[in-house]
Amino acid sequence: xxxxxxxxxxxxxxxxxxxxxxxxxxxxxxxxxxxxxxxxxxxxxxxxxxxxxxxxxxxxxxxxxxxxxxxxxxxxxxxxxxxxxxxxxxxxxxxxxxxxxxxxxxxxxxxxxxxxxxxxxxxxxxxxxxxxxxxxxxxxxxxxxxxxxxxxxxxxxxxxxxxxxxxxxxxxxxxxxxxxxxxxxxxxxxxxxxxxxxxxxxxxxxxxxxxxxxxxxxxxxxxxxxxxxxxxxxxxxxxxxxxxxxxxxxxxxxxxxxxxxxxxxxxxxxxxxxxxxxxxxxxxxxxxxxxxxxxxxxxxx
Amino acid sequence: xxxxxxxxxxxxxxxxxxxxxxxxxxxxxxxxxxxxxxxxxxxxxxxxxxxxxxxxxxxxxxxxxxxxxxxxxxxxxxxxxxxxxxxxxxxxxxxxxxxxxxxxxxxxxxxxxxxxxxxxxxxxxxxxxxxxxxxxxxxxxxxxxxxxxxxxxxxxxxxxxxxxxxxxxxxxxxxxxxxxxxxxxxxxxxxxxxxxxxxxxxxxxxxxxxxxxxxxxxxxxxxxxxxxxxxxxxxxxxxxxxxxxxxxxxxxxxxxxxxxxxxxxxxxxxxxxxxxxxxxxxxxxxxxxxxxxxxxxxxxxxxxxxxxxxxxxxxxxxxxxxxxxxxxxxxxxxxxxxxxxxxxxxxxxxxxxxxxxxxxxxxxxxxxxxxxxxxxxxxxxxxxxxxxxxxxxxxxxxxxxxxxxxxxxxxxxxxxxxxxxxxxxxxxxxxxxxxxxxxxxxxxxxxxxxxxxxxxxxxxxxxxxxxxxxxxxxxxxxxxxxxxxxxxxxxxxxxxx
Lengths: 301, 497
Known about the structure:
heterodimer, A: alpha/beta, Rossmann fold, 2 domains, 6-stranded mixed beta sheet, 4-stranded antiparallel beta barrel, 8 helices, B: alpha+beta, Elongation Factor Tu (Ef-tu), domain 3, 3 domains, 7-stranded antiparallel beta sheet, 25 strands, globular, disordered C terminus
């Protein structure tokens, strides 16, 4: 009798395989931990890949200083509980210049507070490979990503010159000046991520669950005022709404959705029935045509 | 057929989170003119759980472009800005959709001749290929070329989607004639399953909904057929193989060999062999973080503990002792050249197998395949997009199978040692162990030589042994690149104290 594995079992095994290959082939990898649901799954798979040992790499969080407070608390607790080294990097220069998501265009803000500090941190620590939770189902340019994705000096991505990947052979040999991004969740979808969180009983940031939160509505999007830095327009007042997040980023740039899903079961049910893609709630991706492709070329994950 | 974890799931996971029954990877090949992007877009539109904002985007751009009545389904697949500008597919794109039954992965590959390498790399991941032809033009030279590439990378199931049936007045006669041409073409290849389906991607006829315009056709729609494909079963019955990725310890007495089963099944109590050291041992534990298993099957990532510490490390392949792989140094291969830089005898190359990386001592291109006539032209060089027969000599043995016998351990990538680029990907047609004859001119790089100087700082820990192998590889590579035929002493613990 033949035995078939379910699609989540296959995805899990594939991700574990990728983690082990990368750890064996690269000298100094790091896991880019961005606290959200994808990072939660990524970290869980890393723990599985190297069990009974700990994952042989630290976590890196690029902190824009505009993350939800719940995210930061969750981040610190997660690293502590798993006994993993956590490196937090902030672009101090950008902070000094007062770069913020309200007064600057999303593309400028993202470049200075996310892309630049990511490159700074990778260079400063000499990381030659960084694991990320990006998935091919997220966006058109991601759909063309490799599993081992190479960056030339300056961390630039050239979509026209990607290394071919064939069968299950992963070639991690770096050329001069190159570093790599590794995407173990390449073949997962948003639905898979939630199914897997439910199946494995993983804890996620509470912001994914519906609760009464102070919100303002701008351009048809609900923004949760996570702290006092929200500049309210004339006549604008935060209104308590029952909302949750499908995706987490910087709070001024991440739209909430009205929802009553307050536990994992209802979140999974809602995701499986969802009619819009999660990136709908990411304001930085709508900035201009080919926005993600351009950001990636400049070194964004 | 039983899904192991679905049973396990049923006990602790509610219905909403239950898994789909396997994954089918589907390659689409054909040119833009044949309506490939439209066909994929149509599949997503009709059969999948496509998101509403993606549907609205499409309807919005249809309105602004003013195409009367028809949505441009191809917009659901074309990715990069450069591709949209040129209106072609350059690189492989990955799409995912679920039907009620299973997960589909659409690997959208370019059809143009100058992108043969992209198609070959896309096809290497596929369980089934949908080849697309225009009903007005039928089976063309391109179809033959695509069939040859699919055959080489190991795709065994193909579907011919005869598109634009509306433009031949839904003619059964036309379809039957194309179907016959297709059958004749396939006789030359090793496909195990081939069907032709008449479709119209633009209107959706026989894609996900049965066509009323072609009552003469009683076969399955494209989606019906794809849902009936058995996903990734081919390797379940093959002899057991697990390429070892790394060694994991718990700091006490547990020493586990971590890897993904690339073929067959292994059970607790069975013997496995490592052909590189010639050692055999018994499986005493198959572990994962969640729980221990009684057996591990093709596709599972596990940690295997053996009853004897036989110093197996990364690069070794745990295998069934009844039909083991070969500790091979001489390889007959068929490869697709991927790099813009053609084959160069002065470049140092490395052979990447499942988990091993071996310096190439010599590489000789023998012939290049003419994809139109399927004949072979003798050649000593090859360039991007060429499919060549090549003979490779390794500077030390690697555990390998022929592609026909066991695909997971029968493939390789050729790596440029300096730039790191993957310059070619190939399948092994024949593998041979080292022969002592005719080796007089080969320089034997021994452990003793390395221990005296280069590696004298290294001890016997796993990490040091791995570093030892790495340095040995690099030295062999430099020698090979300098034109010195070199062989590495077999990595055997008895020769190292």
